[in-house]
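Forwarding the complex inputs:
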Amino acid sequence: MAAWGERLAGVRGVLLDISGVLYDGGEGGGAPIAGSVEALARLKRSQLKVRFCTNESQKSREDLVGMLRRLGFDISEGEVTAPAPATCLILKERGLRPHLLIHDGVRSEFDQIDTSNPNCVVIADAGEGFSYQNMNKAFQVLMELENPVLLSLGKGRYYKETSGLMLDVGAYMKALEYACGIEAEVVGKPSPEFFKSALREMGLEAHQAIMIGDDIVGDVSGAQRCGMRALQVRTGKFRPSDEHHPEVKADGYVDNLAEAVDLLLQHADK
Amino acid sequence: MAAWGERLAGVRGVLLDISGVLYDGGEGGGAPIAGSVEALARLKRSQLKVRFCTNESQKSREDLVGMLRRLGFDISEGEVTAPAPATCLILKERGLRPHLLIHDGVRSEFDQIDTSNPNCVVIADAGEGFSYQNMNKAFQVLMELENPVLLSLGKGRYYKETSGLMLDVGAYMKALEYACGIEAEVVGKPSPEFFKSALREMGLEAHQAIMIGDDIVGDVSGAQRCGMRALQVRTGKFRPSDEHHPEVKADGYVDNLAEAVDLLLQHADK
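Prediction (whole assembly, two chains):
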C-alpha cells in the first residue's frame, strides 16, 4: 500500500462518523472512545474542515449533540448531517405522509410532518420499539398501499453499545422488504445523496474529503463510491475480518480516531 | 388450461395445508373457513389418502390438533407433518444445541433437546415473542459462533388471522440473515426434504400426490418443485395477484377447500 503521505495528499476536509468513532452508546448515555475527545479538539484547531455524518436515528440532532457535549466533544448541531432531517425534506418534496416506526427520542424531528392517513412508512432505529406489534402495524400499512413506499433511515446491520452488539435498522428494513415484496429507499449512509449533501455543506469536492468510520460498508464503501477516500477505525463495530472484506478496501486502517488525526495532521493538505 | 379431468388424473393422495385452508387463526383460537369441516370429512371418506403438511410453529402438534378437533375437523396427531418435530430430528442428528427463539406454545416439542451452551439458533413463528430484546439475543448468540447455524421453521412472509395479515417467521429470518451475513436453513415448506418426508409418510410418489394450500410460494411452488401437483385456494392469505405470479402457476385455482374436494372426488384417481 502507498505511503500515508500519498494516500492523504490533498485532503482538505474530514467527515466523521459518530457512533463507534467518537463514542460507544449504551446505558447512561455511553462512553467516549479513548483519545477521541482530544483528537477531535486537535482536528478542529487544524486547517481541515470538519463535519459529522451519522446514521444516528434514535435521537434528535439536539439530543445527540447535547449528549456528546456532555461527554466533552466540541460539536454543534449545525455541523451534523443526519438522516431524520434529510427524510423530512424528502417527505415534504414528495407529499408523503408517513406512518412512523421510530424511537421516541427522534420523534421531535418529525413535529412538522403530517402523519394523518399515511401513504408511506418511515423506519428508523427504533430499538425496543421494534416490538412485534409495531412491526406488524408498519407491515399492514404497507400492504394496504397500492404503491408501498418504505423509507429507511440507514441500513446498518448492527452497532456496538457498551453492553455488546445491537441489531440496527437494516435488519428490520430487510424484514419489511421481504414480507411486503418491496425495496426500501435508504436515507443516510451509504446513500450517495446523503454523502453529497454533507460535502455540499462543507463546500468541498469529493476528492478533497475523507470519511472516517467504523463501518466497512456504510462508511468506507459508501464514501468511496462517491469519490471520497475513507479510513476505517478499529473501534466500535470494527471486526478484524473487515480488513479482508471481499469487496471493500479502505484507504487505510487505523487503531482509533486519535491515530487517524495524527496521520491527517502530518500528511493532509500537503 | 387443460380440463380438470386431465389435471387431476392419477392423484391418489392429498396434502393439506392447515392455516388458511382449514381455518383462519386469531383471537379465541380462530374460525373454520366456510365449508372446510364438511369438505375434509368427505375427503376422508373417499379412497384418497390424506395428510396435513403445515408450517405451524406457534403450537405443538398436540395443541394444534386439539384446537382443530374442537372446531370440528377430523384430524389426529399422527396425520400431521410439522416443522418442530422435523427440527428436533436435525438437531439430534447433527449434535446441535439450540438457542430457541420460539413461541411458548411450541416449547414442549423441544422438551428433550439440550439447550445448554448453544451452538446454533432455532427461529420459529414467535409472534409477540419477536421483541427487540429476544431478536437481539438470538443475533448475539449467532455473532459469537465461529460457524453460525440458523434453522428457521418455515420462511413464510405473512399469514392471515381473523384480524388481518400477520408477519410470519420468514421476515425475522431475513432480519437475522442480513444482520449476521449468513443464510438460514429452512425446515418446513417449501424445503423439498419436508415435502418428501410427508410423501414417505403417505407411502406415495410425488406424481401421485397433490398439495392444497393458500401460499403460492410455500405451498404451490414448493410442492411443484418436488414433482407434485398443487392447487391454490382463494382463502387465507390468497391475494388476487397470486394468479398472475411471475414465476409460479398453480395446477388450478379454487375458491376454497370445498371446491377442491368436489373436483378431486369427481376427477382424481380415474
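The CA atoms of residues 11 and 208 of chain B lie 5 Å apart.
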